Amino acid sequence: MSLNLFSSKGYAPDQQRFTWRDMVGKPISKLDDDAFTRVRIILMNGIENEALRFQHIAARMSRDLRLSLAQIRRTEQHQATMVNWLLGPDHSPLETTIAYEQVAIEVTAAVAQREPDPYIAQAYRFGMLEDFDHLYRYSALLDRLEGKDANNILQSYTDILPGRPTVVEHRAPQDDLREPYDRTTAAPLTRLHALLITAAEFQTHDYYMNIGPLFADPVARQLYAEIASIEEQHVTQYGSLLNPEESVLEQWLMHEATEVYTYYSCVEQETNPRVKAIWERFLDYELGHFHHVAELFKQYEKRDPAELFPTDLPEPVRFASQRDFVRQVLAQEVDLRANGTQFVPLAQESRASIDYRDQINSEGSPSETVAAGYVWTPGTELNRKVAVAV
Amino acid sequence: MKEQTPSMGMNRTGVQMSPFDASEMTRATPPSMMPATPGDDTMLAEMRRSYIEESDPLGSVPLPGTFTGAVTTGTQMLMGNEPQLLLDKLGERLAFERTGTRLYDALISKFEALQDNSTSMTLADLQQIRQDEARHFAIVAEAITSVGGDPTSQTPCADLAGVEAIGLMQAVTDPRTNIAQSLHAILLAEMADNAGWEMLIALAEDQGQGAMITDFTVALDEERSHLQRVQRWYEEATLGKPISAGASVDNVSDVSPSQPLH
Asked: Do B54 and A26 count as a contact with CB atoms less than 8 A apart?
């Protein structure tokens, strides 16, 4: 079923209400719910947090929009709460980290395959191979620190293998910037993709920055410090795909459209009926936000919002294992590097990035340390080692 | 070497270190500033109760994924047994032994780094216990397979064992904790492990799983030995210095009452 932003009015913002009990409902089951239910929860939390982040920045740049931004933002806050509180407390912070990396891999891989702009699709594949490696490093940490199998979280949808090694992902800032899409010619899907992937990476960065210091183990503390730095690079990369010439209102409208699009994608594929009801409710809320902002767009910009969305919304983001695609990209592109805004073969990597990396890794690499000799085995590497010993 | 007994110093957490401010905080608060929230802590308990009444379980014990497993489980059910209960508790033991192995890995690192000789504990002792834990993990994995279960799955009690163990892992992997503090966490683990094996043997007996009991009894004997040794090392590490020798004093303060800060 396709969705048209202008024919579905949604729920009026002033009717969008919550209670604490409503926001803090039953969490999903870590053991019985499908991993993609958790993927959707984490993604939507990222989307809601991006909405909050953007709307705060927008309020600093526009006196006229402050009241509307404050009103819509209050609902986004409570939506973010209700979504994020769906994660069960039996997920350790490290298990949740595994789930965050699964989101980064599977959603970015799905988006990369649908992205109509070849350069931007390349950027997604480039970042995805790095998150793929993070999953491998964190899986080693989970195994060697907590004695747990990351596949209990991944449910066999996602491979646990080295990608582009984290140790070589550290680049000079100028090599993380990308060319933005052209706001006059970019397809709506390109703009939606750029916002949703930036949102997902931003929350991953913030999550690692918050939980990294909660670990006692110095290896874990270093690993989170290292991978959080790469996530900052990823936010730089994906954020630079967004066109800086868009007006504040145009950006706000795109944010609301992205929220609609991702909730719509969740509604279409959710397997947990209780969670699906939340996606349906919030899809209606976001349609209400979109129409509110569309009116502001007409009022202040004297433009027709339909010019940004001439047709129905694109097909939903596909929430499914992208194993074959990921393996193919891994085989073909693991040696790609960056030089300025361009992706280049290994030998053409910028001197600035090599120098930066040599310095930051000069006292050792936590991602190499944690995964030294690590080969994922069902039931943890102890399963393999004990079997060998017996 | 890291001191086994804590030093005396500028710990700022108690009210005696801030007598002036603490006195301000407790003295003659105007009625307008007194807490106005009605009720007492029974309201908190009521909220918890309402969530308990409505909550779902953590999850389920997985259905057998193989034909043999389905037959084995079905046969057990026909015999009036509850294979899911046994599988859940086997899963718990498996998770606990695996995490226990990693706890000992962390303790071994600490022991090697500190070169602590305040106890009779040796590196060989720790390596042997670590190997025992890994072997117990393998024994339970085999037992799960023998009754048609999947040893790679995480059962509800296994999940909870992970939640329970997080604090222990944090205590042992913290580079600031000494051997005595780390051994206290290990002692908690060993006590729980002993009780866990006793429960598992009773459950296996109850469900007619005689083949498991021999291996499990050996494991329990080994765990009892671990507990006794860890308890002794913990006491040695904690009381290693005669108390009469007096607590050490660092150079921030001296044994006279510290100066109030504020």
From this structure: yes
The C-alpha angle with vertex A223 and arms to A352 and B98, in degrees rounded to 5, equals: 150
Amino acid at A80: A
The domain that holds B219 is classified in CATH as 1.20.1260.10
- Judged by CB atoms closer than 8 Å, whether chains meet at A31 and B59 is answered as yes
Question: What residues in B contact A31, CB-CB < 8 Å?
Answer: 58-60, 154-156, 159
**pLDDT tens digit string along A213-236?**
999 999 999 999 999 999 999 999
What Å distances lie between residue A319 and A37, A262, B54, B134, CA to CA? 9, 11, 30, 37
CB burial class (10 A; 0-12, 13-18, 19+) of residue B30? exposed
Q: Output the pLDDT for position B33.
A: 73
Q: What is the rounded CA–CA span in Å between residue A3 and residue A363?
A: 53
Q: Which residue has the tokens 């933002």?
A: A73
Q: Give the ranges where A85-147 is alpha helix by DSSP (H).
A: 93-114, 118-141
Cβ(A46)–Cβ(A202) under 8 Å? yes
Tell me the β-bridge partners of A338. Answer: A343
Distance CA B248, CA B151 (A): 50
Three-state secondary structure string covering A161-200: CCCCCHHHCCCCHHHCCCCCCCCCCCCHHHHHHHHHHHHH
Domain ranges of chain A: 13-389
Q: Is the pLDDT of residue A297 over 60?
A: yes
Q: Does B210 touch chain A (CB under 8 A)?
A: no
Number of helices (H) and strands (E), helices first, in chain A?
Answer: 14, 2
Annotate A137-150 with DSSP letters as a single string: HHHHHIIIII---T
* Contact flag A382-B55 (C-beta cutoff 8 Å): no
Residue B258 pLDDT grade (very low, low, confident, very high; cuts 50, 70, 90)? low
Contact B174 A216 (CB under 8 A): yes
Residues 6+ apart with CB under 8 A from A185: none
For the four alpha carbons of A45, A143, A219 and A338, in that order, the dihedral sign comes to negative
pLDDT above 60: residue B164: yes
Spatial separation of the C-alpha atoms in residues A257 and A277, rounded to whole Å? 20
Residue B145 lies in a domain: yes
Compute the average pLDDT of residues A167-185: 97
If you search the block for the tokens 């009991």, which residue do you land on?
B213
Domain of residue B121: give its range: 82-241
Q: Which pLDDT score, from 0 to 100, does residue A13 have?
A: 94
H/E segment holding residue A343: strand A342-344
Q: Say if B183 falls within a structural domain.
A: yes
Q: Which chain B residue's Cα is nearest to A91? A: B163
Q: How many domains does chain B have?
A: 1
* DSSP 3-state of A344: strand
